[in-house]
Each structure stands twice: as structure tokens, then as C-alpha cells.
Write a structure and sequence with these properties.
Blueprint: E1 3-6, H1 8-12, H2 21-32, E2 36-40, H3 49-54, H4 57-60, E3 63-66, E4 71-74, E5 79-83, H5 91-100, E6 104-109, E7 112-115, H6 121-129, E8 133-136, H7 140-143, E9 151-154, H8 160-170, E10 175-181, E11 184-189, H9 194-205, E12 212-216, H10 222-227, E13 230-233, H11 239-244, E14 247-248, H12 257-265
Parallel strand pairs: 1-2, 1-12, 2-3, 7-8, 12-13, 13-14
Antiparallel strand pairs: 3-4, 4-5, 6-7, 6-9, 9-11, 10-11
Length: about 270
Amino acid sequence: MKYLILDVDGTLTNSKKELTENTLNALLDIEEKGHRIVIASGRPTPGIKWIVDKLKLREYGGYALCFNGAKVIDYKNDNIIYQNIFPRECIAPLYDYALKNDMGMITYEGDTVIHGTRADDYMRFEAGLNFMELRKVEDFVNYVTFDVNKCLFTAPPDIAPKLEKEMAEMYEGKLSIYRSEEFFIEAMPLGVDKAASLDRLFAAIGADIKDTIAVGDGFNDMSMIQYANVGVCMKNGQQAVKDVADYVTEKTNDEDGVVEVIEKFILS
């Protein structure tokens, strides 16, 4: 049995955020043969529901890492294997920092993306991508009294790297902060990344790391690509990710690059 670990955006889905029929059929075929799929995404849980349903993860026994690994779900049993909660004491100073630097700041409440800063197109993109409502709340800091897994910050691509660096230095030893897109800065509980959560998953289910293949394209995929027995970067991926991968696909996510991975590392 192989475990195929797949990032979603830029990897599993094409540029239109669609799962092509060719890729879907190839994935269902390997599930039928007894292999297992692990979705590993920065998306919130509602944002991958349609993928879980299309890939029949409940039927075949698949898994998902949401929020970049802050929540790990066993869909066969609808069981949360692991969850890491965002430290509430960090929300107020982060909110102040966002206001000071004219950034967007959002988090997630059920099927809703909530924000207290001004709305921007990046927030609207995140909400639409995950089929969630975008809603502004008054007094954001005091509104968030419930457990959240991550906060997401938005900023134009030309200034996001500077802000990411500043935030990472400010919260060193307290939070994990990194970009998942040119305009998204993720703020996660300390120690949360895809590799760390995969390690917890495989320890819980008794899987062997030698049976893992991880495929991604973005900065937040680097740790899992280095962690897996075979780490693959998509042709359309960031150069830094290609540099740490064992293999770079010849096809992009718009050319069913995941099918190439299946044929080369699972079916061959």
C-alpha cells in the first residue's frame, strides 16, 4: 500500500481550481487497488469537502490535513486524529499589526470566513475558493472567543515578503509564520507544518514512511516533500520547492501532472 499525499491548489487542481476527469479517474483507480490518499492543504475543512466527496475518501479510507496540518482528519471514521489551536493571546497584537500595516486579517468560523479589517480581493478570493461566506464582524478581537486553527493575513505581493519576515521575527518561538501564496501570510500555532502533522498521522495509523509519496508546488509544501520517501514538485511549482524535491514532474497541474506521478511511482 502506498500513501499518496497531495497538496490541492497548484497540484491536485488545475489553474481553474478544477479536478479534471483524467486525474479523478486515476486517483479512484489507485484507491480501488488499495492505495490511500492524504489531502494536505492550507485550506480550511469546508474548502476540501468537495474533494473528499469526489475522491470517496470516506468509502476508501482517506485522510486530510487542513489548515496546513493544524487539523488532521481520518475520514473513514470521521475522527479528528490531531488538532492544534491558535494561541488566543496572539490575536489582539496581530490584529493591531494588521491595522498598522494596512493588511487584511481573517480566520474561520464554521462555514464562514470572518474579518475585522477592511475587506480586499485576496479575502474574497479565499472565501470563494473555499465556498464560504465572507463576513465582517465588529470588535474582531473580542468576537473570536472560540477555538481557531489559523489566522490568515493578506498583503500585496510586492510587500508581503517584508511583512512575512517582520512577523516571523516578532513571533519567533511563538507562532509558525510563512507565505502560502504571494499574497497570503499564514499564522499557525507553533510547530504546525505539513511534515509534522504527517508524522503524527502515520504514527497514529501505523504507516511506514517508506510507503509515502508527497506532491506539492508551494512554499508550504516544502516540509512534506522533504519528509516523504519520495518528494515531488510540480513543474509549475516554486523554484525553491523544486530544489528540495526528489523529482519534478514534466507536466504541470494543467496537464494532469498528478497522473504522471501515479504512473511513475505507484503503477510502474
